[in-house]
Each structure stands twice: as structure tokens, then as C-alpha cells.
Design goal:
Two copies of one chain form a homodimer. Chain A has about 450 residues and is an alpha/beta fold. The first copy, chain A, has twelve helices and 26 strands. At the A-B interface, α8, β22 and α10 of A face α8, β22 and α10 of B.
């Protein structure tokens, strides 16, 4: 696209950094250089797969690697592994690695996230584990066979994936959370109820309304987790708290961060500093329904943002739309997911809403493998516009979340969903689509007010 | 809703008739009467499940019954079983059952479909079977254990379901079709290719470009099917040809039928005769993209149309939108589906189009159970509006077809899909949604023209 000879520097080797580098490389002139710095040993693996290797759903960590180092060399991306960028100079346009300086014409910041550190005594003990780097995960996995008891801090999405997989591995697993139910910060209790039941079957010990006070050790190794409700014996504490943007570098350089701690970017992923872009978990972006800035989204969001940042850095002109945040995951044996905010957050934020709820089925009710599906649509009581959704079921949650995100972005109403056309075929879909049933229930409720 | 005392008469006990009767019953005044006539022994079972009982995917025919006769008595619907309506008098507002007359204030015609009869010698032989009535299916199923060879006429959706299930049952199954590939009237060859491979593995013998000439018999029993390409020995011939609206009664009464043979209805499912409505496979409705009338849709469509007809007959004012026809089914071990027209029909109709194709995956590529998914979007080359879609894969086809139908109705473009947000979670969704990948491929193709 651009014929200019430019130096592209990318900080960070996660989904945002890698997609930015690849996109810039594809659009920049061949005589441009694309250099990516990562403090880790690897890029292009799937950190999201780690819990499932621990749970033996996936046989080996090597399955998680998606590209080789040679691939990137081959397409002309210079990746500097084990290389921590220590400073960004915006005036003189270089990044520092210790005393070394690397000049840039275009800089893309994709420094990702860290786990919000619970500021409690004992957090540095041997046995406190963070799920992020694949090499640490490999070492951790080797120890798991001899470990009997683990406490997971907190019932976040990652905490739930870890707890489910560790319990499946046969380890006594304690899930400790200050909230009243699983994923209480984002999900509704009625949606998480089947996951909780599944966890009970798997033997996960759930401690709700429980605050971690201290990690106790012996010979500098974890011995127990002291909580507001008593002591939990364990050899390992896994920190799976909420994600916090990793922006020390940006802050020190004078790049503006927003209210969430994420780098402020416009709809072109520009930071406001000429030639400097940001993408992924280190940024904050606009939520499409509430119009407030949010952070801590998925690898898929990071990847898209990286594509936008990389393309624009290379001279393209692409906008990134506000996000509606379809999400989905597996908790125990249950799939859960949603779009935008659930009922709990609508209540907490004081947004007028009506809840449209129904329980449907994923296939014909007589077909083997059929599962029940809870669908909840949260709608504006006046316009009937759907504002958010949450679901739980046995299959098809991810696809429905994508569908609902797309539709909610385009201002679909309860009426639209109530009369939607749907596939009916006994092995793959029921006569009545669960989303339509929920919308119909919502309209019936509104008609009776 | 209505306080008037009215006589509702419904002809037909399939999805359209049953939903019309139930909806009218719910909205009509309690002193109104709702009478439904069916020539069969049962209502409220799922005919779509029949092939899967033959294939032993579903253990028993009794699983297919969804409601009891007592249920309808209980809610005040008078069902006349084994009762063939022989005439409709529009002037004097009654239907005849032989010499008996039943007056109506509101009439809903839901007479369904018949299989287009291949007009060949031998069609009346013992051993020619139609998949429709559940009692006949039960009798047929008992014979299957002693049957060795079956020919299925043609590679229609039902023909494919029957062939796959009979082959799975261990019967030598021949699928005979005049077209060049499976479901050639609606689906594209590249989409049906994985189904064909699956059929080869299952041992289904496919005869394409093959016309049935004669069913030959011995002692009035089927002995073979004579075709344009030779004789196929078989004890049974299953007629699974295209659906034709069953409108002899309506035609004789003077109710107007359209170019497809379906009863002409407006957007309120009104026939044009005061107080007379129609719903389901006996009607034709408007296709949302091409704006031409079509017939032969799904049980889900019939059900929705019945709801509209029943509600309007009872005094409500509900419109039925043009249809975009999401479809999906299982062929062999493969799920296939789509929305509106595929590439083949766009070509045949001379509609300018670009094909956006990609192969994606249903979960993270390292996650057990991951399957490949072909997604093809057919778009307007000028506006980039998506006009139709076809897909093949291992999971999630029905949900994607619903999504695409909803989006295409709302005029979504390749750009919309290329940048759609999607759930990423290794066990249930890949980093890149296959629909987005197809849209991206389409845009890249358009950019290079």
C-alpha cells in the first residue's frame, strides 16, 4: 500500500502485537522493516488453551503453538524474543532495551495485561502461580501430578476454566471469590446456576462471599490460604483475578491512559501521539450500548484491533467500531455466554430494562444429545430494543452470542427476535429457536404490564 | 381478544394447522369453537424425525409424539381424526365431510404437501413407500430388518436423510437423482462434496444424472428400478421427490393458487376470500431477496404461518414478513445449511454476484472435536450486500444459518461480516469466525478485480 520505507516497531507478542505486525508487514513497502519485541521466549501460541492442557482435554502444550519462529522470519518480521523494552521516547522516536535504542517511524503498543494483584501477605511465596506464560505453564503442569490441593483466586472466567480442569484432573480444588456466585462481576446468578451444579458434580469446592486475607507458607512454600471464612489447606494458589492493562511503559512515556487504565485510542487505534498506535488488552475501547470505555476483552478482539492498528500504521484508513462484546466459555460441562451486559449490571447501573427469559432446547426434544438452553434477553421496556443477553446450555452458545452481538449492534428488537426465521431439523435444531422463545416471553410480559 | 362467538374450522393437522388452531383458541372468546379436521390418525407428532428412527438414531416412534389427544381436548380444540374434508363451500361457509356439513365463520386451510409423483409405470406396486404418515412409517420400519436393497428417489433433503439412515441401518441403499450432485436443485456442489464423501464411507450408492423410467415388479411387489443408466435391484422404492402443495380442495372451491401451485396469501395469510386464511406447505410466500413466490419450506415456517393465520382469524393484526429461508440438515455425518439461494441458483437466474468463500474451523484448531467448516457467501458485487449463503461443517451450522438469515434480511454487507465481533474460546469457538473469514476473502477478491 504505502511505498514509503518505514521502520515499524511493535511492543508485545500476543494476539494484538502479532496481528498488527503481520498486517503492517502485508501492507508496508517491501523495503520497510517490521520489528516486534517480546519479553517472553515465544510468540504465536494460544494462552487460552493452557487450562485445557492441565485438564488433559488437550494432550500436549505443543498443540498450542500456532506458528513457528521460522514462519515470521520467512515473511519478514524480525521478532526479538526475551527482549524487554524498558522505555519509549516519543520525542526522539525510539524504544530502549536497556542502553540499546531502536528507532521507529510507526510504533504499535500491544503490551497486554497483568492480573490484578491481590495485595495480601504471602503473594511472593513459592507455589503462587499465574496462568499466562506457556513455559511456566509447562513447568507447573509437571508438578500437578504430585499436588493434592489447590486454591484458585477468583471465580473469574479464567478461574472457572482452571478450577474445572484441575478438578477434572483429580485435584482437590477450592474456588475462592468475594462475590455471591460464579463470575458475579459479569454474569447473572440464574445463568451461572447450571455451571455451579456442574462444578458440584466435578467436586469443585466453592467459597463464595469469601475474601482472601493471606497466603501462609512454610519454608517459603505455600501451605494454606487464610480467608475471611477460615483457612484452606493447599500447596498452590492460582491467581486468576481480573485483567489490568499492562501500561507502565506507556504511562512513563507520557501516553494517555483512560479511566480503566487502558491506553486511550481513537477509532483508528491511534493514541493521539503522531505515528503511535495501540491494540489489545493494554487499550480501552468504547462499549456500543453504554458508550462507556471498557477493557479486558478477548484474544479475538485483540487480534482485530491489531489488524486495524497495523493497517492504519501502514497508511490504510480503517475504523474500529464500538464493541458489543460477545463472550462464551465452558464452565464444568456447561457452555455459558452472552453479549454486552447482563441483568445484574443493568440493575446496578440503573438502566431501565425488561428481562425476557425462556428455556429452550438445542435440538428436537427427542433427538440424542439434546440439551436445555436458558436464554435471557435484556431489553429497553419502551423501544423493545435488546440491550444485552446471557445464555447457558450444552451447545451452540458461541454461535448465538455472535448472532446476538451482530443484531444488537444493529438495534434489533424483541419483535425482531420473536418472529425470526429459524432452521428446524431434528438432529441440529428445535422447531422453536430458544432466542425466539425468550423474545416471545418478553413481549408477553410487556403486554401484561 | 375477540369477544365474538365464532366457529373456527381448520383443515389439516400438521405444524401449520396445529399452530393456527392453538393460537386461535388462545385469542378467541371462550364460547367460540375451534374444530380441526385431519384425514390421519394422529396430530402433533414430528414427521421430520421419521428418517432418524429408521436409522436407529432415535430408539422409538413413540418419541416423536409431542402432544396427546387429551391435551387438545383439554385446551378446547375439537380434533376430528380420520376425517377427510371433501369440499369447501365459500358462499355458504361450510366444509363437507361426505354428506355432513360443518359451518365456519373463519376457515384456515393448512392442507400441507404431497410428494411430486414421478409419473412412471409401477408406481402403485407394493413396496413403493412415501415418508409422511407415522403409522405407515411404523409398519415400514418393522419390515426393514428383512429388507436388503432399497432405491431412494431422489437426492432431495428427505432423500438424503433417508439414504443416510438406511445405509447406517445396514441396508444396501441406492440414491437415484437426475441432477449432477446431491440436492442439486438448491445446494452447490462444493458444499455437498463433504456429504458425498460421507455417503461413500457409509456405503450409499449414488446414481447421478440418472432418470427413473419404471418400477418393475413380480407378483405386484417391487423387484427393481429401471433407470436411464440400467436396472437397480431393490425390494423397496422410496419416493422422496420435491414437495407439491396439496391444494385440490382449495382449487375446487375456487380459492386462488399462485405460480408454484401454493394458495395465494397476502402478508396476513389471508386468501382473498373473506374469513379464509391459509398457512404452511399448501401456501406460497414471498422470498425476501428475489421477491418471487416460493413454497415447500420447513415445519418451523409452517408453524409461524399458522400462528399468524390463527391470530388474524381471531381478530389480531399480525403481518408475516417475506422469508429468507435459513435451512440446515445432516447428510451422512456432515451438517449442511444455508440461507436464500446458493451460487448455482444465482448463476441460473442470471443475478450478478461475487462468491466469498473460505474454510474455517469450529473450535480452536487444537481442541478435540474441532471440525472444518466451509462458508460461502454470495454477495452483490456493487453494494457488497450478502444475498445468500451456503455452509458445510461438523457443528454450528443451524445457528449460523439463523444468524445469516437475520442479517441478510437486514441487508448486511461483506464488510459487516468481515469485521464482526466473535466469541473466542478454545472448546467452543476459533479465534477467527468462519463467516468473517469468508467475508474477508470476498473483499480481497473484489479488491483485486
Amino acid at each position: 500500500m504505502s511505498q514509503e520505507k518505514l521502520k515499524f516497531v511493535i511492543i508485545g507478542g500476543g494476539a494484538g502485537g502479532i496481528s498488527a505486525a503481520s498486517t503492517a508487514r502485508g501492507l508496508a513497502s517491501p523495503n520497510s522493516s517490521v520489528t516486534l519485541f517480546t519479553e517472553f521466549e515465544d510468540v504465536a501460541y494460544s494462552p487460552c488453551g493452557i487450562p485445557f492442557v492441565h485438564g488433559r482435554e488437550i494432550p500436549d502444550f505443543k498443540n498450542l503453538f500456532l506458528q513457528t519462529a521460522e514462519h515470521y522470519t520467512g515473511i519478514g518480521i524480525d521478532i526479538r524474543y526475551n527482549t524487554k523494552v524498558t522505555g519509549i521516547n516519543l520525542d526522539k522516536k525510539f524504544v530502549s532495551v536497556g542502553s540499546e535504542k531502536f528507532p521507529w517511524d510507526r510504533l504499535i503498543i500491544a503490551t497486554g495485561f497483568e492480573y490484578g494483584n491481590p495485595d495480601i501477605p504471602g503473594i511472593d511465596l513459592d507455589g503462587v502461580h499465574y496462568v499466562k506464560n506457556i513455559r511456566r505453564a509447562m513447568e507447573f503442569d509437571k508438578k500437578l501430578d504430585s499436588i493434592k490441593k489447590i486454591a484458585v483466586l477468583s471465580a473469574s472466567p479464567l478461574g472457572i476454566e482452571m478450577a474445572g480442569n484441575l478438578a477434572q484432573r483429580g485435584i482437590e480444588t477450592h474456588l475462592v471469590d468475594e462475590g455471591g456466585w460464579l463470575m458475579s462481576e459479569v454474569a447473572d446468578p440464574d445463568i451461572m446456576e447450571p455451571v455451579q451444579e456442574s462444578f458440584e458434580e466435578l467436586g469443585v469446592k466453592m467459597h463464595f462471599g469469601t475474601k482472601a486475607h493471606e497466603i501462609r507458607g512454610q519454608n517459603s512454600k505455600v501451605k494454606s490460604l487464610m480467608t475471611s471464612k477460615g483457612e484452606i489447606e493447599c500447596e498452590v494458589v492460582i491467581v486468576a483475578t481480573h485483567k489490568v492493562p499492562n501500561n507502565t511503559l506507556s504511562r512513563e512515556a507520557g501516553i494517555k491512559v483512560g479511566s480503566t487504565g487502558g491506553v486511550l485510542v481513537d477509532d483508528h487505534m491511534r493514541t493521539g501521539v503522531d505515528g503511535v498506535y495501540a491494540a489489545g488488552d493494554c487499550t480501552e475501547v468504547v462499549h456500543g450500548v453504554t458508550e462507556i470505555p471498557i477493557q479486558g476483552l478477548s484474544g479475538s478482539h485483540a487480534y482485530s484491533q491489531g489488524r486495524i492498528a497495523g493497517a492504519n500504521a501502514a497508511g490504510d484508513n480503517r475504523a474500529y467500531d464500538p464493541v458489543y462484546v460477545p463472550w462464551g466459555m465452558v464452565g464444568g460441562k456447561i457452555q455459558i455466554g452472552g453479549v454486552s451486559l447482563g441483568e445484574t449490571l443493568h440493575k446496578a447501573l440503573g438502566i431501565p430494562h425488561v428481562v425476557a427469559f425462556s428455556q429452550g432446547i438445542s435440538r428436537a426434544r427427542y433427538y440424542p444429545g439434546v440439551t436445555r438452553m436458558r436464554v435471557k434477553l435484556i431489553a429497553d421496556p419502551k423501544t423493545h430494543r435488546v440491550l444485552g443477553a446471557q445464555m447457558a446450555g450444552g451447545e451452540g452458545i458461541k454461535e448465538r452470542a455472535d448472532f446476538l452481538a451482530f443484531s444488537i449492534k444493529r438495534k434489533a428488537t424483541l419483535e425482531d427476535f420473536a418472529w425470526m426465521e429459524n432452521v428446524y431439523s431434528p438432529p441440529i435444531g428445535a422447531l422453536m429457536e430458544p432466542i425466539a422463545l425468550a423474545a416471545q416471553a418478553g413481549l408477553a410480559k410487556l403486554a401484561n404490564v
